[in-house]
Every structure is written in structure tokens, then in C-alpha cells.
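Entry for the shared binder. Reason: the reviewer on the internal report wants the predicted structure included alongside the sequence.
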Amino acid sequence: MILTKHRSDRTDKRLQTRFGCVHLFINDCSFQDDTRQIIDVWVRASKAFVLVCSLTDRKTLPPVEEIVNRIELVKDVDKGGANIILAANQCDDEEHREITEQEVKEFCTKNGIRYWFEVSAKTDENVTELFTCAAELGTDVLEKQHELVKKLENGIPIVPSKKKCTIL
């Protein structure tokens, strides 16, 4: 899922990953109060998130931070518990760059974002790598869920994480 401030579109994309061919359903949408309920439904159903900021506009970081917090609230996970990737767009425009690489790293650390890419939608730089990472993160989550179901079906006890208690 891509959450940005500008438009609302849906795209389907197929990518070859280490898990095989993965079909992505990408929702490119604004994150405004009048669309919050439907977006919350998408957030609950999504396994990975790509949030976009512009390296040429410092004002694009605070809305990303708000969206990270909303995703973690809706998914009921701790800081860093959601599969969020930051796409720092417009890396091709060094002349107008306002956000340094170090600032991107610090922002990601502060907000629990484990993966980030400097990308250019204009030149396609790192775009495939970005979506491959998102597909693999989402697929890895599905693989782990599948493994848990198999263990349950085979009567193998599941040891809950120390942070949360699983009640069946």
C-alpha cells in the first residue's frame, strides 16, 4: 500500500521475488479525515506499507510521521512493528534537495522504519528494488502465518512472543 497526500488510485503489479511471483495490490491514496475509515480497512488487510516523502520538500516528513503512527495504531503494533518502507523520492534532483541522507536515516530510526530507499519516480531509480522489498516483506508475513497454521493443524504448540500473549 502506498499512502501519499495527493490522489487515490489502485494499481496491480506482478514482481518476481525470492518467494516466486508476487501479485501486489497497490492503493495510492490520500490520508484525510473523510477517507480514514476505508483506509483503516486497507491498513488492517495490508502486510507492507510504502510511505513517500520528497527529498526536495522538508514539509513532507511530518505527514509521513502521522501516517506511521496511524498505521501502528490501526494494526495495534508497537513502534517498528509494522512493515513500513520509506520511499524518499526525487533523489535525481540534487540541486533542490532539502533533506540529507543522514536526516532520512534519523527520521527512520526515530519512527521505527527499518527499510528506506532513495528513489526517483522520474528516472525509475530504485523503484523496482523498493517494490521488491515491499513484496518480500508482505510475503514473509504470509509465510510466517502459514507456518503457524500448519503447526496448529499438526498439534505443535506455539510459543507466544514475550511481548504479547496469544489466546486461542
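Summary line for the report: Helices lie at 36-45, 61-75, 101-110, 127-153.
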